[in-house]
Amino acid sequence: MVMVVGNRVKGDSRVEKAARSAYEAGYRVTVVGLIHRSVPACDTIGAVPVYRVAPDYAMYGAWRLHHVAEGDHVDPNAAARSARKKLRQLHSRGRVDRFSKIRRIVAASGRTASEAYGRRTQPGLYLLASDWLARLPIRGIWRRAWPLIADLELAFSQAMIELVPDLVHVHDRHALPAAETTKRALHRSGHEMTWLYDAHEWLPGVVFTGPKVHKTAWLAAEAELIPKADAVVTVSEERAEQLARRHRLETTPIVVTNAPRSIRLPDTDGRKPLREECSLDPDVPLLVYVGRIDKRRGVETVVRALPSLPAVHLAVVAPPDRKPRIELTGVAADLGVADRVQILDYVDSRSVTWYISTATAGVSPLEHNPAHHQDLATKVREYLQAGLPVVGSDVRTQARFLTETGVGTVHRAGDPDDCARAISQVLEDPQSFRSAISEELLFENSWERQETVLVEVWASLQAPPPPRSTLRRSRRLTIGPALSVERSSRLMEAIRSFSDVDGQVISRTQSVGYPGIWPLVNEGASLGPKLEEFRRVVAEADGILLEDLGPLFGGLLGSAEDQLQHLLQMLRVTVMLDPIAGIDPDEAIERIPDSWLLTMDQPQRSKVSRQGRRTRQAILDAGVGVLCTSPLTMTDLGASVWLPTVVPVVSEAQLHTGPIRVMVAPGARGGRDALTPKLIQGMAGRELHVTFPESAESVSGLLGETDVLIDNLGHGSYTDLAAHALGSGCVVLSRIVDDAMGLIPDSCPVLNVTPSDVDDVLEDLISDPERCNRLMSAGIAYAKETHDGRTSAALVIDFLGW
Question: pLDDT per residue over 285-301, tens digit each?
Answer without folding.
Answer: 999 999 999 989 999 99
